[in-house]
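Q: Given only this backbone (216 positions), what sequence would you predict?
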C-alpha cells in the first residue's frame, strides 16, 4: 500500500466524534472488554452502561469518566478489537518468505482467530443492524470498513511480496473480495460449524487458483 493510502486510512480512523480513549489504562481496557462481552450476549441496544460497569468491576462514574456514552464505548471497542487483530495478522503475514503460500497461510490464521472468538460474531451483526438505523453509526461504520479493506490489502501485499503485482486479480480487488466473503463464513459458524468450515476450505481452494500467477 502506498504511504498516501496508509495516511488516508489513519486520517479516516482519527475523524472521531468522541475523544480517543486511553487504551494504555488498564481500567479503560477492562471496561471495553466488559462492553464487548455484554454487547455479544445481550446486543447493543439492550445493554446498559450499568451492566457494563458491573461486568468490569468498576463504578458507573468511572465508566463515564472515560466514556461519554454507550455509543462512545462501541466506537472504541470496535477500534480496539481491530487494532489488536491487525497486529496479530501483520506479524503473521511477515513471517517467512513472501509467497502465495504465505498469503493463504495468513488467511488460515485469520479463520482460526474467527473460530476461536465466534462469540463476537453477533456483536458484528449488531453493528451492521445499528448502522442501518443511526446515521452517525452508519458513517462511522462506512469509514471503518474502508480502513479494514485498506489493511487487508496491506497485509496481502506483505504476505505476497513481489508476486502481489503479478496476480490474475489486482490486490485491491482481492481485498474487497475477502472483506465481502469472510464475514459470511463467520456468521454461518453459529448455525453450522461443519458447513462453515467446508465452505471456507472450498473458498480457499478457489482463491488459490484465482491468485496463482499465470505461467510465462
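A: Predicted residues:
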Amino acid at each position: 500500500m502506498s504511504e498516501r493510502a496508509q495516511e488516508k486510512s489513519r486520517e479516516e480512523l482519527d475523524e472521531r466524534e468522541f475523544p480517543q480513549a486511553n487504551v494504555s489504562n488498564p481500567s479503560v481496557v477492562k471496561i471495553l472488554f466488559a462492553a464487548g462481552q455484554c454487547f455479544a450476549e445481550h446486543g447493543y441496544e439492550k445493554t446498559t452502561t450499568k451492566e457494563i460497569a458491573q461486568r468490569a468491576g468498576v463504578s458507573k462514574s468511572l465508566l463515564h469518566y472515560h466514556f461519554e456514552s454507550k455509543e462512545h464505548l462501541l466506537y472504541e471497542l470496535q477500534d480496539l478489537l481491530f487494532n489488536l487483530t491487525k497486529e496479530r495478522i501483520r506479524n503473521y503475514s511477515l513471517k517467512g518468505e513472501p509467497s502465495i503460500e504465505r498469503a493463504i497461510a495468513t488467511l488460515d490464521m485469520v479463520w482460526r482467530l474467527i473460530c476461536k472468538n465466534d462469540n463476537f460474531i453477533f456483536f458484528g451483526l449488531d453493528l451492521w443492524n445499528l448502522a442501518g438505523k443511526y446515521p452517525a453509526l452508519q458513517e462511522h461504520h462506512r469509514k471503518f470498513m474502508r480502513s479494514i479493506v485498506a489493511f487487508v490489502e496491506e497485509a496481502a501485499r506483505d504476505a505476497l511480496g513481489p508476486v502481489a503485482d503479478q496476480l490474475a486479480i489486482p490486490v485491491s480487488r482481492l481485498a474487497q473480495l475477502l472483506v465481502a466473503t469472510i464475514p459470511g463464513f463467520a456468521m454461518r459458524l453459529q448455525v453450522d460449524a461443519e458447513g462453515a468450515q467446508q465452505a471456507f476450505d472450498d473458498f480457499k481452494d478457489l482463491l488459490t487458483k484465482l491468485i496463482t500467477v499465470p505461467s510465462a
